[in-house]
Amino acid sequence: MRKTKERKLTNKILAIVLSAVFFATAISTAVFAVDGDEDASDTNSSTSSSSVAEGDSSSDESSESSSTSTSDESSDNSSESSSNESSNSSESSSNSSSESSSDNSSNSSSQPTTQPTSATTTTPTPQNPTNSLPVGTKFTVGNYTYMVKGPDTVILKGFAKNVSLSTVTVKNTIAYNGVTYKVVKIGTGSFTGENSIKKVICSKNITEVGAQSFKNCKNLTKVRMKLNVTLIRKGAFRDCKKLNTINITSTVLNEIKDNAFKNIKSGAVVNVMNDPVRKLVNAAVSSKVTVNMM
Question: Do 272 and 292 contact (CB within 8 A), yes or no?
């Protein structure tokens, strides 16, 4: 009985060993076969890779050769083109310069020559009375009082306060507050009853002797009226009983109002410059006054 069990066990062990040997043999055969396939694949891959590498090398050489050839040809063409363009540009520039020179020469010869003028016209600067006083404003300059008549004109209104002179000298112009004014008129009643006055000289800018301006100046003896007097108003020299000499150098006097020379000294002499003024004065004075031509 015991021997039978040992035999069975021995048979099982043997069977297991045989199976193991068989299994090991099978695995070894399979591994060998796989290794052989891998070697063949490696060989083929190596051959193919070598062929491809050689092909790539050949292709690179061909490409490089082609590129070099193309580059050389392109360079030659570019050089030739550049040379031609440079030649054309030079020729064009030469032609342009020649044409420009010709045009300038033509224009220069066709344009008239103008001579600079050295003469200059001097225009007087007009006065700009920016500080002119309002019309009607009175002010005093020196020995006289004035009243504004316009932007640059004034009227003589009489002596300044506490002034009394024997000779009234009417100025051409006076300056006040930065403005120069022309004295163009002796105002109404300016020197009425001024007994200190012996002589009156009217400037060339006086155009009008106002009404009663020298009325009743009892010591007035001589009057001189200059160039531009055009009007002697009513009673200007009335009752000047010592007035014996009147010189009128104005040739434009055209009006003498009533009683301008009433009651002046009998035998007084009026001297004038032309016949129209002589006739005008003759009509304004009494028959006891003589009117002469200068």
Answer: yes
Contacts of 190 (CB under 8 A, 6+ apart): 156, 157, 158, 210, 213, 214
Percent of the chain with pLDDT over 90: 55
Parallel/antiparallel/unpaired status of strands 144-150 and 153-159: antiparallel
For 266, the 3-state DSSP assignment is coil
Give the span between the Cα atoms of 103 and 91, in whole angstroms. Answer: 18
Residue 107 to residue 120: CA distance in whole angstroms:
31
Q: How confident is the model at residue 16 (pLDDT cuts 50, 70, 90)?
A: confident
247 vs 264: CA distance, rounded Å: 14
pLDDT for 42 equals 45
- Distance (Å, rounded) from C-alpha 135 to C-alpha 147? 8
Cα–chain center distance at 260:
59
Q: 71-95 burial string, b = 16+ CB within 10 Å, else e?
A: eeeeeeeeeeeeeeeeeeeeeeeee
DSSP state of 286: -
pTM of the model: 0.57
* CA–CA dist 258, 238 (Å, integer): 10
pLDDT averaged over every residue in the chain? 76
Within 10 Å of residue 165's Cβ, how many Cβ atoms? 15
Residue 72 C-alpha from the chain's centroid? 66
DSSP assignment of 115-138: PPP---PPPPPPP--TTPPPTT-E
Handedness of CA 22, 26, 29, 32 (dihedral sign): negative
Gap between the Cα atoms of 289 and 259, Å rounded: 14
Phi-psi region of 270 (alpha: psi -120 to 50; beta: other; left: phi over 0): beta
